[in-house]
């Protein structure tokens, strides 16, 4: 897997995201596939900066990725104390529909084949298989 | 204080504010805050705001952007106004469907369709 160490800034994750997505597109995946990976990658990186590292630019994000004709695998690790995804309420329940947060994980799950958190909850693994 | 970049383009059709989102990607907090501020300022201008929000340029948005839109929707509703979204690309529309936000928002296919009944 390729590995990049990022500072917790919007600029850093934007640039890293573009690099990864450029490689995904170069691998020949179609627009819909790239859209799915972009959505999950950006949600994951934004969560790492915002919730994991608390917008502290001195903290780092470890981004690992592997892009092959068979699948795209991305692992994002932040320096936060982690969280429990099970505790996130279902945003599609009637009582949560107008809440302004809590949709990121659901969207990642909708667009990727695998969305897994480490036991500590500070590492996210995303996988999408090719068609 | 730094002025934020214009994130929206406003035209008026009668009492309706037709607002085109300028950015192709609405992802990071700074962009989302600036768009939210600029839209809220418009909503604050009138007693019963009537707004069409045109997504023609938008190819990507994050879950935080959805949060900003929900806040805007609530604000418009509190003022007994109307908010209609239009020109949402199919992939973005899928996000609205998956999250069931398509049931909350009034979504029209085109700007012309969005203006029907408003002007």
From TrEMBL, chain A:
CDD domains per record: HATPase_RsbW-like
SUPFAM superfamilies cross-referenced by the UniProt entry: ATPase domain of HSP90 chaperone/DNA topoisomerase II/histidine kinase
Keyword annotations from UniProtKB, A to Z: Kinase, Serine/threonine-protein kinase, Transferase
Coiled coil feature spans: none
Gene Ontology MF annotations: protein serine/threonine kinase activity
Oxidoreductase recorded as keyword: no
Residue span, Histidine kinase/HSP90-like ATPase domain: 8-128
InterPro entries in UniProt: Anti-sigma-factor_SerPK (IPR050267), HATPase_C_sf (IPR036890), HATPase_dom (IPR003594)
PANTHER family, per database record: ANTI-SIGMA-F FACTOR RSBW, ANTI-SIGMA-F FACTOR RSBW-RELATED
Name of the protein in its database record: Histidine kinase/HSP90-like ATPase domain-containing protein
Species name: marine sediment metagenome
Phylogenetic lineage: unclassified sequences, metagenomes, ecological metagenomes
From TrEMBL, chain B:
An example molecular function term from Gene Ontology annotations: anti-sigma factor antagonist activity
Parts forming coiled coils: none
Cited Gene3D superfamilies: STAS domain
InterPro entries: Anti-sigma_ant, STAS_dom, STAS_dom_sf
Domain STAS: 27-118
Membrane-spanning intervals of the chain: none
Family listed: Belongs to the anti-sigma-factor antagonist family.
Protein name: STAS domain-containing protein
The organism of origin for this protein: marine sediment metagenome
């Amino acid at each position: 897997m390729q590995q990049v160490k990022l500072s917790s800034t919007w600029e850093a994750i934007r640039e890293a995201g573009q690099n990864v997505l450029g490689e995904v597109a170069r691998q020949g995946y179609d627009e819909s596939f790239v859209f799915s990976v972009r959505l999950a990658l950006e949600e994951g990186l934004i969560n790492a900066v915002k919730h994991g590292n608390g917008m502290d630019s001195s903290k780092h994000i470890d981004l690992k990725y592997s892009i092959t004709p068979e699948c795209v695998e991305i692992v994002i690790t932040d320096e936060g104390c982690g969280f429990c995804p099970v505790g996130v309420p279902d945003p599609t329940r009637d009582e949560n529909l107008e809440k302004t947060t809590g949709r990121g994980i659901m969207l990642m799950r909708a667009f990727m084949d695998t969305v897994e958190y480490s036991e500590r909850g500070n590492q996210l693994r995303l996988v999408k298989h090719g068609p | 204080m730094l002025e934020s970049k214009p994130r929206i383009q406003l035209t008026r059709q009668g009492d309706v504010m037709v607002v085109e989102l300028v950015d192709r990607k609405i992802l990071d907090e700074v962009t989302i805050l600036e768009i939210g501020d600029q839209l809220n300022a418009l909503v604050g201008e009138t007693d019963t705001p009537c707004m069409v929000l045109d997504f023609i340029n938008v190819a990507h948005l994050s879950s935080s952007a959805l949060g900003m839109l929900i806040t805007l929707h609530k604000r418009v509703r509190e003022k007994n106004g109307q908010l209609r979204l239009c020109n949402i690309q199919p992939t973005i529309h899928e996000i609205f469907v998956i999250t069931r936000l398509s049931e909350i928002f009034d979504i029209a296919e085109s700007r012309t369709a969005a203006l029907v009944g408003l002007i």
